[in-house]
Task: structure prediction
Amino acid sequence: MKVILINNQSKIKLDLDLIREVAAYISDKFDKDLKSELNIVFSEGKEIRKLNKKYRKIDRETDVLSFSYISDKDKIGPGASSYTVGEVIICPEVAQSNILKQDENWNLNLEIILLIIHGILHIYNYDHEEEKNRIDMESIQDSLVSDARRTFKL
Result:
């Protein structure tokens, strides 16, 4: 899967090369099709707040939103050169504030990677509304974060 990073914010400095490398590694665990694409968008707080209000009816900033387009895959013609499986929209400002709730071995790169994993899981129909689903999703999420930490020495 091709990962496309779009940085629409300037308040928080991001290691986009590392994020792209880790995101590609993680996304390939879900889809190895070279025609598939995943957009990861880094957004200012006010923009993610607008999206959160519009799509979730929650009028506040959030750390991550995801939009799945997987059901559209069947509508793509056989000659298409690529298709977008989804978008993960992350607010680095909120991500940075999340770090304060973590242990001392946590940093912004790990938080961004966690949010990317969380968003990808939603794209592939995982959710955390019910207790059993939350436990399953968190288990996969924790496993992928541990894998990324080992592989990329984070």
Summary: The chain has a mean pLDDT of 94. The helical segments are 16-27, 45-56, 92-98, 108-123, 131-152. Residues 39 and 87 are 5 Å apart (CA to CA). The chain has one domain: 2-152.
